[in-house]
Amino acid sequence: MQAARDITSYRKHWAECFGTAPFLPMSRGEMEALGWDRCDVILVTGDAYVDHPSFGMALIGRVLEAQGFRVGILAQPDWRSAEPFRALGAPILFFGVTAGNMDSLVNRYTADRRLRSDDAYTPGGVAGARPDRSVIVYSQRVREAYPGVPIVIGGIEASLRRIAHFDYWSEKVRRSILLDAKADLLVYGNAERQVCELAHRLAAGERIGEITDIRGTAFARRRVPEHWIAIDSTHLDTPGPLQPPGDPYAFEPEAPLPSAAPPRETVVRFVRRVKNADRERSVIRMPSFEQVSADSVLYAHASRILHLESNPGNARALVQRHGTVEVWLNPPPIPLTTAEMDWIYERPYRRRPHPAYAEASIPAYKMIRFSVAIQRGCFGGCTFCSITEHEGRIIQSRSEDSVIREIETVRDTVPGFTGVISDLGGPTANMYRLACKSRQIESACRRPSCVYPAICPNLDTDHAPLVRLYRRARAVAGVRKVLIASGVRYDLAAESPEYVKELAQHHVGGYLKIAPEAIGEGPLSKMMKPGLAAYDRFKGLFDRYSREARKEQYLIPYFIAAHPGTTDEDMLELALWLKRNGYRADQVQAFLPSPMATATAMYHSGRNPLKRIARTSERVHVPKGLKVRRLHKAFLRYHDPRNWPQLREALRRMGHADLIGRGAHQLVPAWQPAETGETPESRRRAAGSRPFRTQHTGLPRTPRRRH
Known about the structure:
Helix content is 30%, strand content 13%. It is α/β, with parallel strands linked by helices. The protein has an 11-stranded mixed sheet, sandwiched between helices. The termini are far apart.
């Protein structure tokens, strides 16, 4: 993997002379108090401004400040007019626009497309403080306010919409958000490396339209430059013809797939014809927006190509035509080094909300104010998760000393600290310092996961550095407890009994949440998650070490309903497993097809992009529609009497009426508590329109009972 410029090596911008701001300014008055006449960069965000490294705008703002730039913040501006976007004036370099730490649509709607009643990133938890599709709306208002100022979009919402993507909320394929937002540049992933280079180059006088070589960025251009070699993606994976299959007994050869290349563009048919020396100037032409919109198989193909080209060590640029415009994606950014990670997380964050919010409570801040991030990235590759698409699969870890210094800072400066660090982790709890044993192999690898279908033999699974960090953290003076709240990858943890012992005996507060997600091979193979054997191994170790410490502790497993590959029978099997093991889920999660995720491509196309895509390739069962999604959630909450009528109806339809009754092996009783509001009509419907009978046995109806 090529080296990248150290982000701390830039010569600082002249405005460094103004020093460090106590908080990045949100008003003209704060700017004047700092001696500023203008901002170099203004960040527009859908979140309240909390000066904490867990909030993206604070992290990017402090990183740019450390480079010598004056950074202002417009947090949750009123988008109904352009006037609030003029509050700080026009920045000298660019506006940076983000929806915030969450996608605005995920933040606003549930998986069943119902409005959420709150927003954890808003003072008071009030919903509705940001618009739907915030990046697009904010960008439009910025353009109205200051037509000539460059707009750079980023964050999770922009990152996951960098190409044509399936949009669950409108049930259609939408264009790259770069075009809908009319932005000049899109930065994807964790953007410190991109923004630092961009700011310095703009400050040096380059025009934003000329900056087309920064990794981790996307931009629009009219055509592919002549010196580039274009590789047609449909020659890497061949989906087959667009028209329906012909007569299988005919002798005529199958018509070739129309090329993804626009007219008059020369493409290379096979990638092996591109010499290694030419890889840096080769680009993969993906099917156009119009093609993937019209053909879900081509959409699945494009998704597969995107994920195959995600390793910074071997990824090539991608280009996708939208009408008369090319959307160009440069390869992913080079991961940050440990020294760079330390530098980023040790900026002078105040670790509290901006004073403008006074005493208002911001729920997300309350949750993370005593937490410390130790790593980024995830090599799990779960198909429903956006972490890998956003942060990459190469783990970027901080040093032990840096983490300990931050714990001491939390202890000494954060109001209300009682001696408990609420979390020490990241996207996953236990991937700290885990990496491929060979950098050469890592740079050449195209596997979407290092742990599925089994843990790669080239992966170093040594948890010793993490165990040492835990021991040092809890030995810090004034720290009573260090909890682990991030998700534990239990198949990895089971490889290190010493780690499980350390976790169970010192870092669990009675309950530990883990995520098997499913138990059936059908859904697990589409999620790229391990089976129950890995869960059982971890549970055995966890229970053993908890008993040795004389602690009563429990695992809380999380499961996903209605994931692609999941049938009603899979959910029934899971419900019976939950009942046998005494689990009663209070909240359940239904699959939400987030943009660009592999599982979303399955949801939209009914194909499996984990394998080579063809017209005849594996079809995936996709549970769609509100009725089936609610049924799958009802299976997870089999113990809730409000779900029993629906489950009884489903069990009869599935031929499992024997699972209705009071026996330990049965799922739901035949009777219904009066307070759940079941009507005579719903009882007759659930019983197959046989009044005064239960199940299909012809036996007299049993009287209602209460628990």
